[in-house]
Amino acid sequence: MADAQLSRVLGLLIVGSAASLALGGYLLYLNRMVPVSLNLLTLLAVVVACTISYYVFQANRVAIDVSTILGLAVIAFSASSRAHDSAIARFGSGTIIDLLDVLQVIGFYICPGSFIILRVIYRNRINLEARQSSA
User: Fold this and answer.
1) d(C-alpha 59, C-alpha 99), whole Å
2) Residue 87: what pLDDT?
3) Has this prediction a pTM greater than 0.85?
4) Is the model's pLDDT at 95 over the cut of 70?
């Protein structure tokens, strides 16, 4: 993978996660499945993710490191959440629940997990790219 493409892929993974969270939060809001406070927290998470993705696209090393930590935290949060576990357990019970489950897996596992895996595999290239973009 070329150096410039790596930052683009990492940034797109963050945007993909944010888009999944945004759509899932919107569906939860429309169907009144969670309190408004959780929808506001979801909106805040989407704004933070989109903001940090801007810096990741620019190969900012601090943003990439922070994104890695946040990716680990998101996976740990979702894996330990009773609400997320019960939602996955209800998979197959209806179209909205199924769509929310798919969005949950994309936003909380696939995108952050892929980001972390790429971050580890290409850590030397990320370090070099960050140095070149700051020069």
Assistant:
1) 33
2) 86
3) yes
4) yes
